[in-house]
Amino acid sequence: MPTFVYMTRCDGCGHCVDICPSDIMHIDKTYRRAYNIEPNMCWECYSCVKACPQHAIDVRGYADFAPLGHSVRVQRDEEKGTIAWRIKFRNGTEKNFLSPITTKPWGTAIPKLADVPGPSKEMRDSELLYNEPKYIRMDEGDLHTLKSAGLKLKKGVYY
């Protein structure tokens, strides 16, 4: 579902241009408003939608599963540390999703791979990726949940 910009809401701040990984969000030189130059090349990561402080960027659904009269809206609330998605189907049904913002400051989540010893032959022949059992938490043969690990989801922004 590629993105599009409501020109009346956009103030030309450029947040979407800075964050777009496929470099398709641009600022119109005449009107000083953002626009998507290649909607068919959109990666659908929605970084621009979440980054826009004016809520000027919306998501256009594909006609085969979301024709006529639907909408997908996002509301980022950094004070509460949440991202809320509201999906309105064409029959009027609405679904609301609320997720915590788990973004870490730039550069803090990158492992220092130069300090890690090289993989053994057994690790290279395995189907697992680097640190996979540790990060997907299947190291004991089962998928862990927050409840089974005795953890609780924190409220607000945290790093």
The beta-strand count equals: 7
Structural class: alpha+beta
Rg (CA only): 20 Å
Mean pLDDT figure: 80
Share of β-strand residues: 15-25%
Broad shape = extended
Q: Provide the succession of SSEs.
A: EHEEHEEEEHH
- Cα end-to-end separation: 30 Å
- Binned, the helix content reads 10-25%
Strand order of the largest sheet: 5-6-7
Enumerate how many helices there are, as a single number. 4
Major sheet: 3 strands, antiparallel
Low-confidence stretches: none
Write the layout of secondary structure elements.
Blueprint: E1 3-5, H1 15-19, E2 25-27, E3 34-36, H2 47-51, E4 57-59, E5 71-77, E6 82-88, E7 94-100, H3 121-125, H4 132-136
Antiparallel strand pairs: 1-4, 2-3, 5-6, 6-7
Write a concise keyword list for the protein shown above.
159 residues; 7 strands; extended; two-stranded antiparallel ribbon; single chain; 3-stranded antiparallel sheet; alpha+beta
